[in-house]
Amino acid sequence: MEKINLSKKILRTLIKTVFFYLSINKRMIIQGTIILILPDLLSGSRTHITKPGTSGYFNQSIVVGPKRRRLDLLDSEEQEDAIEKLRQENKELQNKLVQDRADTIEKLRQENKELQDKLAKKQEDKIEKLRQENKQLHDKLDKELELTIENLMKENKRLENKLANLSTFKTKEIEFRLSEEETVEDHIKYVELTRDTSTLGQNDNTSSHQKCVPVRDFLLTHLPPCYQDVEMLNLIKSLADISVKIEGKDVDDKRKQFSDFAAQATMLDSKPIDTKTVPKFRNSDVKSASLMKPGSSSTSIDSQMDVNTSDIISSSHLLGSGKVDDVFIRTEADYGPCPCHRQCQEWGEIRVLTSAQLMYDDDDAKHFVCTFFYDDDDKRMDQQKSARGDRIVLRDLKKDVCMFLCMTCDVGLVRTLEGMLDKFEQSWENAFDKYANTVTWENERLTVIVSHPYGLRKHISLGKSWNPNVESSEKRIEYDNPTFNGSSGAFVLIPDFDVSDDV
To answer: The organism sits in which domain of life (predicted)?
Structure first.
């Protein structure tokens, strides 16, 4: 009996210990064995601990109540299965995480691309808008610039007309500068100039309408009131552009025999003469656009040359003036080699119209030099161009007309003169349109001469024409323009725009 009580006491103590450990880990290891404590352990029934296949207390197994539960050890295979399961779960989680990350990255890339495309589209739209605005501004600026230029041109024209109307005529003295390159003959010419003519166009014989003005100083106010228009000024200036200085040196004495003009020349001095007589011709080969009658059915062409014979003397140094009549560009393929020693592939011929008293024959023509664009003493060396005479094309002493050719390798000069000839013809047409129905030439009888007095810079001489000499068998016209030594051969411009007029 005492043993039974002792056993119960020991069992209670053991149960308390088991419950203590169960309250902590729910599992307990006793002597290497996992013991599962059942709920009916508290029932007070008979219990014992035993191990499978053995008997006895505590060291064998534990039995609680009527139901018996055995606590078996988890074998290594179950542990491996659990570990493998955890690994699979971990791998699945990792794969899911990687897939989620890849999806997130792809989504971000798509969003980034959409944003870039949207930004690029906005930039293109903005650039296109700026281009359109820039184009509109350019168009507006061009239009405003055109209007500004047009207004400036109108204002400039108005100021020119106002200046011309306010200006007063003042005759200037000829300034002649003796340079190191000028010859003794040029110096003698200067002495004669200062001795005989202190001021061109101003002497006891000239009238109020007679003027001789340097081409650079010529203004609208120098013209009669009815001709004070831009069209007439442009016509005279365009004639001045194609007027040339003609100079001959070392000319032989056989010119003394050409005509009665030479005999008359020795009796004339170097002072300006009041009235000259100029032959007027029709149906000649001489071309002069300024005297062609626009609108006329006739193909005849008039030509007038100044016949101041005071400079045609027997000396070896001759001076005259002329007008460019036509220009030609020649090539070696069509006309053979260039006559000059340089054998140029291309060269030019300039046909000049002047007085027949200056030249005798082709040999004589080779001693003459034509000087172009001698308009101003201050820059004359920079502006001047020259060409040497080559041969005579036409010479008629009775009509006092001579056309001769000058040769030059300066093709640029030829093209420049060609443009000036076109400008002269266009200026004549513009003047015709202006004055054909507004001004009657018979009322004013204006005559204009452009020449190189004494071989100096270009001057414009104004005068009036007198009634034709009806007693003569040939048409002749008289005029009183101031002319000088060196004016012989100058072209006489008669601005008669009446197509029915026989002058």
So the answer is: Eukaryota
Asked if 406 and 352 count as a contact pair (C-beta separation under 8 A), the reply is: yes
SS3 204: coil
- Dump the DSSP string for 40-72: GGGG----EEB-TT--SSSSSBEE-SSS----P
Which phi-psi region, left, alpha or beta, contains residue 201 (left: φ > 0; alpha: ψ -120 to 50)?
left
Q: For residue 226, which amino acid is it? A: C
Name the DSSP letter for residue 1.
Answer: -
**C-beta of residue 27 within 8 angstroms of C-beta of residue 34:** yes
Mean pLDDT of 42-55: 47
pLDDT, position 45: 47
Around Cβ 119, how many Cβ atoms within 10 Å? Answer: 10
Rounded Cα–Cα distance for residues 487 and 272 (Å): 10
Measured distance CA(409)–CA(387) in Å, rounded: 9
Minimum mean pLDDT range among 57-61, 73-77, 321-325: 57-61
In the chain, pLDDT over 90 holds for what percent of residues?
30
- In angstroms, rounded to a whole number, what is the distance separating the alpha carbons of residues 471 and 352? 32
Single out the residue of 424, 353, 336, 347 nearest to residue 395, CA to CA. Answer: 353
254, exposed or middle or buried, with CB in 10 Å at 0-12, 13-18, 19+? Answer: exposed
Is residue 469 within 8 Å of residue 277, measured between CB atoms?
Answer: yes
DSSP assignment, residue 258? S
The structure tokens listed for 277 are 């007589």
Q: How many CB atoms lie within 10 A of CB 151?
A: 10
User: Is the Cβ–Cβ distance between 244 and 408 less than 8 Å?
Assistant: no
Q: Which residues contact 260 (CB under 8 A, 6 or more apart)?
A: none
What pLDDT band is residue 251 in, cutting at 50, 70 and 90?
Answer: low
Phi, psi at residue 218, to the nearest 5°?
Answer: -75, 130
